[in-house]
Each structure stands twice: as structure tokens, then as C-alpha cells.
Specification:
Blueprint: E1 130-131, E2 134-135
Antiparallel strand pairs: 1-2
Length: about 140
């Protein structure tokens, strides 16, 4: 299926909308690409975005468990399951973590769980900071 629209959308318009306002369980959108070996599962090109967000998740105020964004990956070949490439950044920050208040918990948690006492081996690092290839 290909959806194309060669006109201008206002801030009130939506090109494609999936709505399930009465669904209380289940999965609304399931993309199965388990045999994809090369390429990209989901691609968002917002090259000319001036203000706003290319990807936004809203909700979670009633959550008692789970997460709004979850990546479940296994990496055995030195590949990073998640990367952020920002190219040239002039002002601002590559990544912001903001909260109005933290009554309990933390803004960033780095955790390794494993059954062995050596869940992080001597070659592994929980946090590695580098500046131009030099560890800091």
C-alpha cells in the first residue's frame, strides 16, 4: 500500500490516522518485518522540519508498570542496539532529559541485570565517555 499526497496539510489535517478510541487491550499497530535482513523497518524523513517533533509519544499519566518507549534487542557482534547521530550541533543539546519534578526514582538509570557476579566483564563498561577518541 502506498499513500501519497502532493498538497499542503494545515496543522489541523492528518494524512493517515489509525483510531481505536474504545480499545482497552491489545495492539493497535503491529509491523512484522522479522525476515528483514537489510534496510530499514521504519523510516521518517522530516528534513525540513522547522518546529515540532518528527516522532512524539504522549501518555503514561496513569501508568503503574511498563514504558512508553521500549527497545528489546540482542547484540552479539559489537553492534549498538540504539544510536543517536546528530552531525553538527550548533547550540542546544543532542539529548535532553527533562522533568517538572522527580518525587522518587531518577532521571537516568543505567542498569545491568544478570545472574552472574560478573555481569559486566573486564572488557565491558557500564558508562564510557570519550572526547575525540580519548576516554575521559
Amino acid at each position: 500500500m502506498e499513500v501519497s499526497f502532493n498538497d499542503t496539510l494545515s496543522h489541523l489535517n492528518t494524512l493517515m490516522k489509525l483510531a481505536a478510541p474504545k480499545a482497552s487491550r491489545g495492539t493497535i499497530l503491529n509491523i512484522n518485518a522479522q525476515n528483514l535482513q537489510y534496510g530499514t523497518g521504519i523510516h521518517i524523513d522530516a528534513s525540513n522540519l522547522f518546529a515540532g517533533s518528527a516522532f512524539e509519544i504522549i501518555g503514561g499519566s496513569q501508568m503503574t508498570q511498563g514504558s512508553l518507549f521500549k527497545i528489546n534487542a540482542k547484540s552479539t557482534g559489537g553492534v549498538s542496539p540504539m544510536e543517536i547521530h546528530a552531525g553538527h550541533v550548533e547550540g542546544g543539546a543532542i539529548m535532553n532529559i527533562r522533568s517538572n519534578a522527580i518525587s522518587s526514582g531518577s532521571s537516568l538509570k543505567l542498569e545491568v541485570t544478570g545472574n552472574q557476579a560478573d555481569a559486566v566483564s573486564q572488557e565491558g563498561k557500564l558508562l564510557l565517555l570519550e572526547l575525540n577518541g580519548t576516554r575521559i
